[in-house]
Specification:
Elements lengths: L7 H8 L1 H8 L6 H20 L2 E2 L6 H20 L8 H19 L8 E2 L18 H4 L4
Antiparallel strand pairs: 1-2
Helix pairs in contact: 3-4, 4-5
Amino acid sequence: MADTYSTTGDVEQRMTAATLAALTQQTPYDADAVDRRRSQAYALIRGHLAAKFDLSVDLPTETTDLLRETEIDLVEYSLWGGRREDRPKRVQKQRDDAMKMLDEIRAGTLILAGLTSASTRQQNAQVVGPKRKFTRESMEGMF
């Protein structure tokens, strides 16, 4: 199982085993289906943050706790899938709030403890070559 911020137990605690069984259409619930949704939510979170932040560092507990809750929000929404008419309004709102929060983190309007800019670890390429023969000054008056 890939790294995630949550555990299957965290998802079960939020949603109950009975709800998970109904949504995965298996009794007991399909833990592999829940794990796939957790991996997808984790990838979505990391994809939102990786371009701007260095995610290779250990994050403080308060940050990972928030990201765990965000991941569970996304997992719950995903498990409800196409059941729009049955999906509780709170599930849609939690997903919308989670995506808004990720956008705000990426935009820099919401700052989480421990997230450092990825630009501090990036290096720019430097091009080295011979001196230019055709410069603005050397071409002046030729045309």
